[in-house]
Design brief:
Low-confidence stretches: none
CATH class of the largest domain: Mainly Alpha
CATH topology of the largest domain: Endonuclease III, domain 1
Structural class: alpha/beta
Shape: globular
Helix content: 40-55%
Mean pLDDT: 95
Amino acid sequence: MDLLSHTITFRHALAQWYATAQRPLPWRTQPSLYRTVVSELMAQQTQIKTMLPYFERWMQRFPDFAALAEAPAEDVLKHWEGLGYYSRARNLHKLAKEYVALEPKPRSREDWQQLPGIGPYTSAAISSIALGEPAAVVDGNVVRILARLTDDARVFKNNGEAVKAFTPTAEAVLDQGNAGEHNQAMMELGATVCLKHKPLCTVCPVLAYCAASRKGSQEARPKIERKATVKVEVERAWVLQAGKLLLHRIAEDSGQLAGQYELPRLETVASPRSAKQLLASKSRSITHRRIKEHIYQVKAKPRIDASLEWVRVEDIERITLSGPHRRWIGELLAR
């Protein structure tokens, strides 16, 4: 069956499946506008299974817009620690402050898009799920589903181009009278069945509408050009003296990681001829970058500048570190 010729039966099949197959996520079992907003910002760049414990902890500390608006920035960042992409936490904090002050409160997709950190996708998700506005949500999951349903072989330069291309199709199949549930069903289908690799076609509730599955081309859809992998190597310094660890505090105007601590770069604390010992080599990935970080124990007296701070070992839990650096510091202290 052609998708666009059978939108009513497609919506019905999708809705029936979602009613029984949806995961009992906390923002679904206890829905509210605030919980929808927090979950949508947390889910950007983060898998659901990873963000769940953070969401629960966040709700205990910041149960509503007012509590979040009144919280110190350091507390907000500390409760986000480990999720990465910290601009999301800063935007959420700013959003809460603006939302509390706004009268009347934002209702439409256009209203929400004026708030910090809210783009076309997030505004559509919030306004449809929490406020009932008939707006189609189009993210990577939805692009993948629609590309396979229509067997679209176009090659897109990036995700943004693909989202723009499939938005008209998403709007055409949207259940206007129940947009929030429909959008969540589409996202759930992409997250649990219409997977990027090895999709579970045999249990797909809308398989009858999938042109790609009939041709066996589902794993080739969508076609999105990926950035070439860039390899980066960084040398870090480990300086532990008298129960204090030397750390670098990232400047407040540095974007994503502003105000956080990390192990300092080796070249900032030691000369090329300084005595040092390799303690560990660690790898991590950020988008298309593959980063290898070598941590050296510096045995000579370190150079100290204004960006470096001695932090007592017992205070390390209280400061905000990037997730990988907290793990590495914990491992090295445990030795």
